[in-house]
TrEMBL record:
<dbReference type="GO" id="GO:0005737">
    <property type="term" value="C:cytoplasm"/>
</dbReference>
<protein>
    <recommendedName>
        <fullName>CREG-like beta-barrel domain-containing protein</fullName>
    </recommendedName>
</protein>
<dbReference type="InterPro" id="IPR055343">
    <property type="entry name" value="CREG_beta-barrel"/>
</dbReference>
<dbReference type="Pfam" id="PF13883">
    <property type="entry name" value="CREG_beta-barrel"/>
</dbReference>
<dbReference type="InterPro" id="IPR012349">
    <property type="entry name" value="Split_barrel_FMN-bd"/>
</dbReference>
<feature type="domain" description="CREG-like beta-barrel">
    <location>
        <begin position="36"/>
        <end position="170"/>
    </location>
</feature>
Length: 177
């Protein structure tokens, strides 16, 4: 570790045991393992802010999307090819997705609650094979699922940035979860 925090440029090969040991934090009287908390957010998130790169200048573009974790924890996204974010992804598949813990909605200080930011590339997923999993989380999307311009995508992210609250921040490899 060179920078004093866990970042992928200085610490690309952080082990799960080291992260679990060094970054176990207290939340009230309950010990909270940050890797388990990051996993909980990935599994429970139903919406997020998707950031894509727009136009020739590759300007950042963020939009609200519905999501659910696939079996490998990769977020699944049902997007219309008519949408700006899908058009951006067709030109450049790099993206970032911010997911928040359920506690954000009721926390007096939302920034003290947990959140995960994934960085990676978006690729098409098996729309028919993952239909039941996606619609179980988003039954309201049944109508959209039938439209031919809607496709299912997955965000393949080798790492994520997890903020468990003030001073509890770590980069994790998604394979560690």
């Amino acid at each position: 570790m060179v920078c004093g925090i866990l970042c992928p440029s200085c610490c690309p090969r952080i082990t799960l045991a080291w992260v679990s040991h060094q970054f176990t934090a207290k939340k009230g009287s309950i010990t909270m393992d940050l890797t388990a908390e990051a996993r909980r957010i990935l599994l429970g998130a139903r919406r997020g802010a998707l950031a894509t790169l727009s136009g020739e200048a590759k300007d950042p573009y963020a939009s609200l999307v519905s999501t659910v974790a696939g079996e490998d924890l990769a977020p699944l996204l049902l997007l219309s090819t008519l949408s700006q974010h899908a058009q951006n992804l067709a030109a450049d598949p790099r993206a970032s997705l911010l997911l928040e813990s359920p506690e954000v909605a009721t926390a007096p200080d939302a920034l003290a609650a947990g959140r995960v930011t994934l960085q990676g590339t978006v690729e098409k997923a098996d729309k028919d094979g993952l239909r039941a999993a996606y619609l179980a989380a988003h039954p309201e999307a049944e109508m959209y699922y039938q439209f031919t311009d809607f496709h299912l995508y997955r965000l393949v992210a080798p790492r994520l940035h997890f903020v468990a609250g003030f001073g509890r921040v770590v980069w994790l490899e998604t394979a560690m979860l």
